[in-house]
Design a protein that fits this description.
Elements: H1 5-27, H2 31-35, H3 70-73, H4 82-97, H5 107-117, H6 130-149, H7 165-170, H8 182-190, H9 199-213, H10 221-240, H11 245-267, H12 273-285, H13 304-318, H14 322-330, H15 336-351, H16 353-360, H17 365-381, H18 389-396
Helix pairs in contact: 1-14, 1-15, 1-16, 1-17, 1-18, 5-6, 8-9, 9-10, 9-15, 10-11, 11-13, 13-14, 14-15
Length: 399
Amino acid sequence: MTPQPDKNISDAVRGMLLLGAYGDALGAPHEHDGLEGRIIDPEDLGRLVRASTFYPPDTPGQPWWVWADANAVQTMRGLLTDDTSFRMMLLHPWLAQTAGRRALMTESAFCEWLHREKEQTTTIAYPPGLWRSRQQQITAWLRIYEAAENGQSESFFAPDVPVVFGLFMYLDLAVLYGDDDPVKVYTLFRNFSLLDQGSAGVFTGLLAGILAAGVGTQTSPAQFTDGFIDTAWQLIKEAASEATDRELQDLHTAKEVLENMVHFGKVHRPDSGYTFLKTFRAQIYTDTALPFHTSPSHLKNYHPLLFWVQIISTLAYTADRPFEALRILSAGVGDTDTVASILGSIMGTWMGYDQVYEGCIGDTPLKKECDAISQNSRTLYCTDLEDRVDLFVQKAHTV
C-alpha cells in the first residue's frame, strides 16, 4: 500500500532534520582545518567527537557568536553549529508564523520578520549565550541584506562573488515542494535569495530540486548515489532547455563538473578514505583552473561550485555507501559543516527517517550518534527535532 501523503512528508522531514543536523555536527571539528587546506588524522575521519576536543572555553568567537558559549557545551558529543542554529532559531520560527499560502514564503517576508524579531526577548531557558547569539545573528544578516541591496561588501557578502547563502539558510524549505516539478523547484530556489549571485543561484536551485525530488521516495542507501546523480543529470538537462545565456553557462559548468567528478570518484574507489581526501586536495582543491579560485581567498571555501564538486566526487567514490560519503565529506576541506549538513539533509529526505533510523543504522554506533544529536537539539534549542515535523506537514499542504 502506498503511504499517505502526510506520512510521506513527515518521514522525509524527520529524516532531513536528523541527518542535516548530524552532518553539521560531523563537519564542525574539521571546518577550520578545511579552511586552511589541511587533512585531519586518519583516525578522526568522520567521527562525532566531544566539543571539548575542538571548542575549548577560550575559543575566539565564531562568526556573529552564533554558537552557544563554549563552557555550556563542553560535554556534548556532536556540537551543532550555526548551520543548525540558524534553521532551528530563525528559519523554522519564521515558517511557523507565515500565512498559510506558500507563495508568501519569500525572502523579503523573511527579512521583514527579522526586523521585527530583532528586539524580541524570551523566557525560554536557552543555554548561556544562545539567545544572545540569535539576536546578534539577526543583526549580522540584516547588515548583509542591506549591503547586497546597496551593492556594498559586508562580512561574507561581496558584489559579484557567488557564495552559498541560499543553501545555508533556506534549503529546509525545499522539502515543502516535493509535489512540484523539480524544474519548478529549481527555478524557485535559483531566484529565492538576493544574496545568491551568479552561479550561486543555479547550484542552490539544483540542490534544492534534488532534495525535493526525493520526498516520499524512501530510497534505499544502496540506490541513493545513483538516484542523486541521475536526478542531477535530468534536472540540468531540463533546466537548460529554458535557461538564459548566463544561466546556461553555469548549467554547462555544473554538467561538466558532474561528469568529471563522477569519473574522479570512481577512479579512486580502491583508495582509502584518507587517501581519497588527500588526492582531492592535491588535484582538485588546488586546481587554479576551477572557477572557485577566482573568489577572494577568504570566500573560496564558500563558492557553490566547490560544494558541488565535493558532494558529487565523494558520492561517486563511496558508490552505494552514502553514510560513508557523509563521514568523508565532513572531514575534507572547505566549509565542512555546511556541505555535510546539505548532503545529510538530502539523504534524510530521500531515505526517510523510518528507513534510516529503524532500518539502516539499527543497533550500531551510528544509532547512538543520532540519539546524541537529538538530545543535543533538545538541550540547545529546548525543542526536539520531532516537534518541527507538524510545522512542515501543515505548510506542505496549504494552498
